[in-house]
């Protein structure tokens, strides 16, 4: 699973949102966000949350509210697979994504620290190459 995150899991228990700008070919989001996830899969935390095959697209989930109660309220929807229907989450499906903020924020890719914002992400469908050692 590939997950590109703005504001890491360490901040889940803190109440802090940042002014975020997410620009895509399928719509934009400008406003507060405590977390932004860019997923290249239909699954999050082991739970299928998107039914449609979206090869070549990223699933962008923006948690708009920063309160711990809101974050906890998302858990039942996540477990049911209805997270995109939650009023506190903005959902966008896109191939070309620009994310910026008026605050310096670190990103993380699959749990590893990555570039600070702004970032630009381009999803290339069916472009994964796998290298492995030859069989002996």
From TrEMBL:
Entry superkingdom: Bacteria
InterPro entries: NAD/diacylglycerol_kinase_sf (IPR016064), YegS/DAGK_C (IPR045540)
SUPFAM superfamilies: NAD kinase/diacylglycerol kinase-like
Domain YegS/DAGK C-terminal: 3-131
Record-given protein name: YegS/DAGK C-terminal domain-containing protein
Organism from which the protein derives: Streptococcus infantis SK1302
């Amino acid at each position: 699973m590939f997950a590109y995150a703005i504001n890491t899991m360490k901040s889940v228990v803190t109440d802090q949102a940042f002014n975020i700008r997410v620009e895509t070919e399928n719509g934009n989001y400008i406003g507060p966000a405590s977390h932004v996830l860019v997923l290249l899969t239909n699954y999050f935390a082991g739970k299928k949350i998107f039914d449609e095959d979206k090869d070549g697209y990223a699933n962008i989930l923006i948690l708009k509210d920063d309160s711990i109660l809101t974050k906890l309220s998302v858990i039942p929807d996540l477990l049911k697979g209805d997270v995109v229907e939650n009023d506190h989450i903005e959902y966008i499906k896109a191939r070309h994504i620009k994310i910026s903020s008026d605050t310096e924020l670190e990103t993380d890719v699959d749990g590893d620290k990555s570039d600070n914002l702004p970032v630009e992400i381009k999803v290339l469908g069916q472009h994964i190459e796998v290298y492995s050692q030859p069989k002996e």
